[in-house]
Specification:
The complex is a heterodimer of chains A (319) and B (348). With 319 residues, chain A is an all-alpha fold. Helices cover 69% and strands 0% of the residues of chain A. Chain B has 348 residues and is mainly α. Chain B is 78% helix and 0% strand.
Chain lengths: 319, 348
Amino acid sequence: MGILDIIQSIIPTALFFSAPLIFTALGGVFSERSGVVNIGLEGLMVMGAFVGIVFNLTFADVFGAATPWLSILAAMVVSSIFSIIHAVASVSFRADQVVSGVAINFLALGLGVFLTKQWYGKGQTDMVSQPFYSLDIPFLSDVPILGPLFFQDMYMTSYLAIFIAFIAWFILYKTPFGLRLRSVGEHPMAADTNGINVYAMRYIAVMISGAMGGIGGSVFALTIAMNFSQSTIVGQGFMSLAAVIFGKWHPLGAMGAALFFGFAQSLSVISAGIPLLEDIPQIYLLIAPYVLTILALAGFIGRAEAPKANGEPYIKGSR
Amino acid sequence: MFSNRLFNILIPVISVVLGLLAGAVIMISFGYNPVAGYQALWNGSFGDTYFFGETIRQVTPYIFTGLAVAFAFRSGLFNIGAEGQVIVGWLASVWVGASFDGPMIIHLPLALIAAALAGALWGFLPGLLKAKLGVHEVIITIMMNYIALHVSNTLIRTVLSENKDTSDKITDSASLASSWLMEWTSYSRLHYGILVALFAAVVMWFLLEKTTAGFELRSVGFNKHASEYAGMNVGKNIILAMVISGAFAGLGGAMEGLGTFGYMPTHSAFTNLGFDGIAVALLGGNHALGVVLSAILFGTLKIGALNMPTEADVPSELVEIVIALIIFFVASSYIIRWALLRLKKEGK
């Protein structure tokens, strides 16, 4: 295999694996930037995957080719509503945010599998008939070199993920709303004094993370898993959380980290047959995202500094 | 006013009741009979000696992971990595248990110590990073969980077996299994581990409440800065807390490796023993006795749930939902406390 063939086989696979991680990690950025730790990303993805698959199976005949898009929309809405539980517990009830996140993970999986058994009579759903298909972009795919790399055999969701990452960056850093959201996560009391509703901002941020986690989960389900069961989402949410931190709580950083993790995953999938890479034991590629996150946090790859008020419930009137 | 002690007992009890009630509501709304459902759960955990044995078997690792999480909590740390520590403990115990044969009096303790050391090592790194660099332990321990999962799977395939999905069986001299306990419980997988677990709970109580080291650990958990000014070495205590916590979780893994299974299979996903340990510790108020009691509750729920589909046609995942809700209620104790005080005021 020539070097170009190798790159050509890696890049689309990497983009394919990273799309769900990018969506979810962006949600995590919003939540954590507002000061709410979100260990529940995993659960939000589970919910997204469940809703995406169920919607797809139920309405495949009605909506035809538009079904997968409507499925992720439905997953977005439901996961966003589901995430309110996390917001209520950690913002209003002053629960430990990590504990509440853990409970979200339990609850999503429990509900998902319970309802699957309830509605389908078995532990997993059928395969969906209308998943996302990869396609060649007209004209662009004919461009030499770049065409095969970035525009052939691609999933639209991968482009969407990258596009939304830039939108998230714009919202967080270039709009008044973004400034408020970040200020609530850095110094809620100062924000409160300036007339920003800390609780409302945090609710909104958590719901955005729910929406994005829902999209991430459903995209994973409709591009990679194709059905829902207990083991559809195993760790992708935590990997997204790692991407949030490795990306230093910045939307574009999180996207970069998610792309890198997707790249690492794709290497472990297609490494066989690629010279040099096939000699590396798979285990190193499997644990790479986690090891790198630890190194990043320990300051070996640039210091990762969390938002100041991350994880602390805001209690009005306390100093 | 309610006393604090009363609150500490009331809140877990109320949370469990609310969780079970919510479970009943869910059963009703899906057309099941909640009484039959909970009856099946009860029969599935205490209905006969077999189920009873299985319940106690499940309680054993829960006590360990609950102690692990509780111990870290008391020192002001959140050890979400009990899961990974269970896995490396399991691996280490099976490794030592299977690699040679010897007198039980040496072999079994050696396998247990190996598990504790492996778990301690897995807790040491997050502790070190927290103490020296101020890195939050939650994220590090989550990452360590995945590293443990993948590394142990690889080791099972390459070192502990010849490219198979389970490790070799441990030799009898390292086994916690007991033929009379099994016979007595109609051949459940009950093993001597429960005694080790109860002993560990006593150790934790004694260590935290009756020794200077325990006092320092609790003091650091209450207020880092005050402890620092009082001359305690905060960093050392953080590392120590994570190491001991990891050792408890590692022993929890040994219960599975030396007791329940006698080998270690590769895992495609987590065992959930460590994550459930968080629930056990929270509900148990992070006290040794509380942990034992709530481990019994969660073991009962988990094993009883398996009987719910057969006897009452209710999917066993209902129990997962109930457990998640219980965690929510305990975590939101602020609102329960508020509601109780409110009720009390209006009652006057």
